[in-house]
Design a protein that fits this description.
The protein contains 13 helices and two strands, in the order H-E-H-E-H-H-H-H-H-H-H-H-H-H-H. The chain is globular. The protein is an all-alpha fold and 328 residues long. Helix content is 70%, strand content 1%. The N and C termini lie far apart (75 Å). The longest helix has 34 residues.
Length: 328
C-alpha cells in the first residue's frame, strides 16, 4: 500500500530501533567515559616505560647521593643516610672545580665550532645545484649515521703514534717532529682530537636542520634586498638569521646538552687522560664511582652535573624569551 503525503506536511517519523538511539561513528558498546579513557590507555605503556627508564634512575641517583654508599653497602645493602655530606665533600674539593671549568671550556669550544661550521655548511648547501646538494646531504647523513664507538675507534687509528695516517701525512709534508708523535700522551693534543671528533659527529645534524630552516625563507625577501644593494653579510644579518632564529636556538640548546654530557668518546679514546686533561663532569662521576668505589660521591657528581646543565639552559631560555618579548 502506498502512502501519499501532502505537500508541506512534515515527514512521517521513522520507527526507532529497539534499544535506544544509535549515534553514527560511535561504538555501540563504548560510552562517553570509555571513549575519553581509551586514548590514555593507549599511551600508558609508553609513559610507564619512560618513567621506568628516566624517572626511576634519577630518583635512585638522588637517594644514593644522600647515603653512605660504597662497595660494602652495594653488597650488603645497609646504606646509611648522611644527608648533604657527599655534596659538601664534593663542593669543597679543588679538583672537582678544575673539572667543572674544563667541562664548560669543552662545551663552549665544541658548541661554537659546531654552530659556526653547521651554519656555513647549510648556506653552502642552499647555493649548490641539485646534484651537489644531494651529494653533500648524503655525505652528511652517512657521517651522522656512523656509530659513536666506530667513529671513535677510527679516530684512534688515524692518530696512532706508529701506524696512524696523520703522523705519516705530516711527516711527508716535511714536519719530521711528528714522526711517531704520541698524540694521546699530551693533554692539549688529546683534548683537540676529542673536540675534532665531537664536532665532526655533530655538524651533520645541525647543518641538515639549519638547511631545512633556510629553505623556508621566502626568496622574495632576498630579491628585494639585492635590488636595494644589500651585501651578503647584511642579508644574512637582517633577513636570514632572524627568519631561522627559532630553529637555530633549538639546535644550539641541543648541542649544549649533547656536548655537556659527552662521555662515550672520551671514555673510549682517553679514559679521561692523560692525567685529567680530558676529564669532564660525566667522566669524573664514573671515575669516582667505579675507580674509587665511591658510588655516593659519583651520584652526587651526576646530580650536580644535571643541576648545572639545567641552570645553563634556564639562563639561556630566559635570555631567548626576553629577546622574543615574551615572559618566561
Amino acid at each position: 500500500m502506498t502512502v501519499v503525503r501532502e505537500a508541506g506536511a512534515p515527514p512521517a517519523s521513522l520507527p526507532r530501533p529497539p534499544g535506544g538511539t544509535a549515534r553514527p561513528g560511535r561504538g555501540g558498546g563504548r560510552g562517553p567515559i570509555g571513549g575519553a579513557v581509551w586514548p590514555y590507555l593507549l599511551i600508558a605503556p609508553a609513559i610507564l616505560g619512560m618513567l621506568y627508564l628516566l624517572a626511576y634512575p634519577l630518583v635512585r641517583t638522588v637517594l644514593i647521593s644522600l647515603q653512605d654508599f660504597q662497595l660494602r653497602q652495594l653488597i650488603q645493602g645497609d646504606a646509611r643516610f648522611v644527608g648533604l655530606r657527599n655534596y659538601r665533600t664534593l663542593l669543597t674539593d679543588a679538583h672537582f672545580w678544575q673539572v667543572v671549568r674544563r667541562t664548560f671550556l669543552f662545551m663552549a669550544v665544541n658548541v661554537v665550532l659546531i654552530m659556526v661550521l653547521a651554519t656555513l655548511v647549510a648556506l653552502v648547501i642552499e647555493r649548490l645545484g641539485r646534484a651537489g646538494r644531494v651529494t653533500v646531504l648524503s655525505a652528511l647523513v652517512l657521517t651522522w649515521a656512523m656509530p659513536v664507538i666506530a667513529a671513535t675507534t677510527v679516530f684512534q687509528w688515524l692518530f696512532h703514534s706508529e701506524f696512524g695516517i696523520v703522523n705519516w701525512a705530516l711527516k711527508q709534508l716535511g714536519f719530521t717532529s711528528f714522526d711517531r708523535y704520541p698524540w694521546f700522551a699530551h693533554g692539549w693534543a688529546a683534548f683537540t682530537i676529542l673536540v675534532v671528533l665531537i664536532v665532526w659527529q655533530s655538524v651533520p645534524f645541525a647543518a641538515i636542520t639549519l638547511y631545512s630552516a633556510l629553505v623556508t625563507v621566502p626568496t622574495e625577501l632576498y630579491e628585494s634586498a639585492r635590488i636595494d644593494g644589500a651585501s651578503a653579510r647584511r642579508i644574512f644579518r637582517a633577513i636570514t638569521f632572524p627568519m631561522i632564529r627559532p630553529i637555530f636556538m633549538l639546535v644550539f640548546s641541543l648541542e649544549v646538552i649533547w656536548t655537556f654530557k659527552a662521555f662515550v668518546q672520551i671514555w673510549v679514546m682517553t679514559n679521561g687522560g692523560p692525567g685529567d686533561a680530558t676529564t669532564i663532569l660525566p667522566v669524573y662521576a664514573v671515575q669516582t664511582a667505579l675507580s674509587s668505589q665511591r658510588y655516593d660521591l659519583g651520584s652526587a657528581a651526576s646530580m650536580v652535573t644535571v643541576l648545572m646543565l639545567a641552570g645553563v639552559l634556564v639562563l639561556y631560555f630566559r635570555q631567548m624569551f626576553r629577546q622574543e618579548g615574551e615572559a618566561l
